[in-house]
From TrEMBL:
The keyword Hydrolase applies. InterPro entries: 6-hairpin_glycosidase_sf, 6hp_glycosidase-like_sf, Glycoside_hydrolase_63, MGH1-like_GH. It comes from the Bacteria. Pfam families: MGH1-like_GH (PF22422). GO terms for molecular function: hydrolase activity, acting on glycosyl bonds. Belongs to the glycosyl hydrolase 63 family. Residues 26-395 form the Mannosylglycerate hydrolase MGH1-like glycoside hydrolase domain. Keywords: Glycosidase, Hydrolase. This is Trehalase family glycosidase. The lineage of its organism: Bacteria, Bacillati, Actinomycetota, Actinomycetes, Pseudonocardiales.
């Protein structure tokens, strides 16, 4: 496989200053999508990768948050719901997504060193992380709380079912996603109604109040700790003090293990801040702490990853939900299918923890599945069948990145 098909997808999805995840289903700029897209673009056009990230951070709020959607003014408002009129926040939404941006900024700089780019993005990244630490520590334990399932990036995860059950669904809106995707692959109408209700309540609070849904997500927090490690390297490259970033990463990692790790289960679970209870679902978010190189519980977590619940290395990609669970669904959004970005992240974790052969197996599977499915949004972990939209940008971009990386085992 060469990069030609993947590069062509990124070209088609390029708007001139940013890349849409999909021309049909997601016709605007999404926050963590753009970070993953930049990781691939750095091999094709570092200048375009820099532009991607600059465009996203140009929409950063005064309080430091990086919005999860930046709306394209050239796209009709009716193309996506909820659109800019719903959010009443100018050209952005008011939610956030996982903080993978520092890692992307560092990687883009390493591909083609650009001190001016690094110096311009560094204070924006500092403000972004400060917002998460100071405005989102709802539980008082040093962990970020998300206020909406969309903020996890794993919108329809079974981990959110308990907290979402408290939310009364909104009605009277028109879903735009079903015009571009199979209803069997997408969230139910009832769940979508709950998403709309939460977003409207948060909007009406001025994007400040914690509502019914307040959850500490292990994936989000692991990626913040990893982002602080990347920030330390960025600070070093700029000749700035970096110890504070390493200390911040260590604090989040410590709180993550003390709060969300279940030693009996060998897994990280999300925590419902409203009840104080860990949610019972084994989802791929609980595997993302593997990205942390000094994770003390890595052997136990790897045992769970390769065991019957996820069967890492034995199925396609990394299943988003427990393969043995009664509610596992191989096709429905985040309730079982494997996603390319999660596979990419878990592969990074495997490399950190010396699992080179397994990392290579995962890499080879991701590349083959991407090509065979037409760069699908996600796939059935058992059959490899593609689901969701095709020509998906982060699938294409991370394919480019994996092709640029040699096998870990010679």
């Amino acid at each position: 496989m060469d990069v030609t098909r993947a590069a062509a997808i990124l070209d088609r999805n390029w708007l001139g200053s940013s890349t849409v995840p999909s021309r049909s289903l997601y016709p605007h700029q999404w926050s963590w999508d753009s970070a993953f897209i930049a990781l691939g673009l750095r091999h094709l056009s570092p200048a375009r990768a820099r532009r991607e990230l600059r465009t996203l951070f140009a929409a950063q709020w005064a309080d430091g948050r990086v919005p999860h959607i930046v709306f394209d003014p050239g796209t009709p408002p009716e193309a996506y719901f909820p659109g800019p009129g719903f959010w009443r926040a100018g050209r952005t939404s008011g939610l956030v997504q996982p903080p993978v941006h520092a890692r992307a900024v560092l990687a883009v700089h390493e591909a083609e060193p650009d001190q001016e780019f690094l110096a311009a993005l560094y204070p924006k990244l500092v403000a972004w992380h400060d917002y998460l630490r100071t405005r989102r520590d709802a539980g008082g334990r040093g962990l970020v709380a998300i206020v909406h399932p969309w903020e996890s990036g794993m919108d329809n995860s079974p981990a959110w079912d308990g907290p979402l059950a408290r939310v009364t669904p909104s009605t009277g809106f028109v879903r735009r996603d079903l015009a571009h995707g199979d209803a069997a692959d997408r969230p139910s109408d009832e769940d979508y109604g709950r998403y709309v209700r939460l977003a409207a309540d948060y909007r009406d609070s001025g994007y400040r109040a914690f509502g019914e849904f307040v959850v500490e997500d292990p994936g989000f927090n692991a990626l913040l700790a990893d982002a602080e490690l990347a920030m330390a390297e960025i600070a070093d490259a700029l000749g700035l003090p970096s110890s504070g970033h390493r200390e911040a990463a260590a604090r989040v990692a410590k709180a993550l293990q003390e709060t969300l790790w279940d030693s009996a289960a060998g897994f990280f679970f999300a925590r419902d801040v409203r009840t104080g209870a860990l949610t019972p679902a084994y989802t791929c978010a609980g595997l993302l702490p593997l990205v942390l190189p000094d994770l003390g519980v890595a052997p136990a977590l790897l045992a769970t990853a390769t065991g019957p619940r996820f069967r890492l290395g034995q199925v396609h990609g990394v299943p988003s939900h427990d393969l043995t669970a009664a509610d596992f669904d191989p096709a429905r959004y985040w309730r079982g299918p494997s996603w390319f970005n999660v596979g990419w992240l878990v592969r990074q974790g495997l490399l950190h923890h010396g699992e080179h052969a397994l990392a290579d197996r995962l890499r080879d599977d991701l590349l083959a599945t991407a090509e065979e499915t037409g760069f699908a949004e996600y796939c059935d972990p058992f059959t490899g069948e593609g689901h969701g939209t095709r020509s998906f940008s982060w699938t294409a971009a991370l394919t480019v990145d994996l092709l640029a990386q040699p096998a870990a085992v010679a």
